[in-house]
Amino acid sequence: MNEVKILSNFTRVIRIRKNSSPFLRFTVSPSYQLSVKMIKNYLSLIKFSHTIFAMPFAILGFFMGVFQFKNSFTDLNANGLDKVFTYSKEHPTVFLFIILSMIFARSAAMAFNRYLDREFDALNPRTAIREIPKGIISPSSALRFTILNSILFMGSAFMLNNTCFFLSPIALFVILGYSYTKRFTSLCHLVLGIGLSLAPTGAFIAVTRTIDPAVAMLSLAVIGWVSGFDIIYALQDENFDSSQGLWSIPAAFGRKKALLFSRILHLTTALFIIGAGFQFHFGILYAIGTVIYIGLLIYQQSIVKHDDLSKVNIAFMTANGIASIIFALFAIADLLMFK
């Protein structure tokens, strides 16, 4: 057996072995495996997959901003794709720093939430498996991770424009402050909704430095949407929250009324989504996306019962993830094809 060793500056990274097989076998060094495991642990800490909720709305906000940004377009009859290409050539980094801002802001918020709630998480059987209670990530490491991502978020906002930079501390105050709200108000779900609602508004401001009524409606829709599904998710911890003196709609009013509040919030979401479509003069594709989106809201409300929480995770993750992606895709396609 012949061995070819590839050495990095610091450690042996990969060993390639040749044998009778036509394929190469790669043996990864322990230091490399440790690095990959650490990255996976931090991605799990912040539930990186949940980025799927707000990110599509941020991307939609970017595209709406591009179509509202008139100074870059000399040909008013240019089609949607031409407008996007023209803007991207003149402002090649805006989209990138919007994405980075979203990632850094959400990472800071989630890490801080895990840091602040670590003692409660350790007592709750549902959350005791999280990284800090299990000792996988230390509280101090989570706090440093929060600070690092907060700095990176403000740096990304600075790279967008002065307006975004000056507003970034306010955004941090909202998304980090949410973690405290469960200690004194049942309206904590609304604060979470406000935090995620900054996605379309922030992206629009990154492009235009202004706000538009249609984007404001989208942000209001996000508040109702996120608050509604967060109430559904909180149903799982109704008894635990009550026993620990934590505040939530389910703990304060019980499951039946909590589900009613959630449905009212999702109704307001539907109304604001429809209103945003009319305000921004969207077309048929936006309407189709809206119908699918509202249908998925109805679906998640239909599968969760006050006496049966077995499908909460389907309602929380699957339905909402699909809803946000599909809606954003149809809305963006509408802009590109008909604006």
Structure, described:
Helices cover 71% and strands 5% of the residues. It has 13 helices and three strands; from the N terminus they run βββααααααααααααα. β2 and β3 form a beta hairpin. α11 packs antiparallel against α12 (284-303). It starts with a strand and ends with a helix. Mean pLDDT is 90; it is low at 1-24.
Strand % is 5-15%
CATH class type of the largest domain:
Mainly Alpha
Portion in helices = over 70%
Compute the number of strand runs.
3
Q: Strand arrangement, largest sheet? A: 1-2-3
Index terms:
339 residues, mainly alpha, Tetracycline Repressor, domain 2, 2 domains, 71% helix, globular
Present the secondary structure layout.
Layout: E1 2-7, E2 12-18, E3 25-28, H1 30-45, H2 55-68, H3 80-90, H4 94-116, H5 118-123, H6 139-160, H7 162-181, H8 188-208, H9 213-234, H10 238-244, H11 249-279, H12 284-303, H13 312-338
Helix pairs in contact: 2-4, 2-8, 2-13, 4-6, 4-7, 6-7, 7-8, 8-9, 9-11, 9-13, 10-11, 11-12, 12-13
